[in-house]
Amino acid sequence: MVNPLEVYKVSLVALRRNPMRTALTMLGVIIGVACVVAMVAIGQGASSAIQNQIGALGTNFMIVFSGSRSAGGVRHGIGSVQSLTVEDAEAIARECPSVAVAEPSVRTVAQVVYGNQNWFTTIQGAGPNYPTIRAWAVSKGTFFTDEDVKASTKVAVLGATVVENLFGSAQANPVGEIVRIKGIPFRVIGVLDKKGGSAMGQDQDDIVVVPYTTAQKRLMGITYIQAIMVSAVSPKAIDRAADEITQLLRQRHRIGKGQDDDFVIRSQQDIASTATQMSQVLTLLLAAIASVSLLVGGIGIMNIMLVSVTERTREIGVRRALGARRADIRWQFLIESSMISGLGGVVGIGLGIFIARLISRIGGWPTLVQPQVVAAAFLFAGAVGIFFGLYPAAKAARLDPIEALRYE
What we know:
Blueprint: H1 4-17, H2 19-55, E1 61-66, E2 70-71, E3 74-75, H3 86-95, E4 99-114, E5 117-126, H4 130-133, E6 138-141, H5 146-151, E7 155-158, H6 160-167, E8 178-181, E9 184-192, E10 207-211, H7 212-220, E11 227-232, H8 238-252, E12 263-267, H9 268-311, H10 313-321, H11 326-363, H12 371-397, H13 401-406
Parallel strand pairs: 5-10, 7-9
Antiparallel strand pairs: 1-11, 1-12, 2-3, 4-5, 4-8, 4-11, 6-9, 7-10, 8-9
Helix pairs in contact: 1-11, 2-9, 2-11, 2-12, 3-8, 9-11, 9-12, 11-12
């Protein structure tokens, strides 16, 4: 039996005889592995960024919207009926064990004016626990209190984008200044931390938050609420909280069995699961496309190994005459093909990581290289080398030693 170490030495000598050919053969594997690592890093980076943005929506965030209605066979969208009340929000906070906080919410858009500057933005009417529900800290000043809500106080908390456009810089401190919303003066009492864009590309900092009662009475002229913002006690309690809210609101709204709900519940997990599925499909698609180049590299290995078998026919005959078994010949060629793919895999992994980081630095695209992906790429490269080396190895092992010695 031939020593495995000797087989490795012979294989290494054989590869070093034609270094240019070996390098070019290895290049196909290098490009394939680099593409797989880089593309998967891009896909997983996008997935991670989306999940972070969704997580920034709030702590265990859920929102209950008013439902839809049908008129003349035409179905109107969510919020077309005025089915939610402040009492509903209070009942959810009081009677649903899986709910930590629940507050009324209204929303409109308006022109905000300060001095000779103005900005068209979203006006969010909320309760005092809005920063807790949305996991959104106040960087300057304070947030309004429950007393401000009860008294419909004309106070406002500005987002960073609004501050930048009204006061010239996002670092400006507008606390204590007076801004006008629809011509009504509001005193600025705080500034929200910069949060950046949402998963849908919207600027979350382009907002002004006021007490919902103030928004109802002074800005919108309504008595109903448009939605209820809810924070569950934990991420695992979101589904349970949704069930409790559904049962409670159906009871409060006197909805009979078999009748449709007049409200809609949307949770952070709904958005997260959809985004996760989309990003997984994207990652698999990118990996599948990149894997094609790795298979092409494997075909190149097979081609070169078949040429090598032909060139080394006499060498195979001599080794067989000296006592080498067919299994020894087979192992020699399998080791050569696996060494080509293995070394190509290592170089390809390094190149893929470099490309991913380069894309992240130049293009600003988030990338994420995970150890399990690197390990899988290396194993896949080795598997390609073995798979595409099987036929040349088997062909070499089947050579008749006498005919091989006579081969010119």
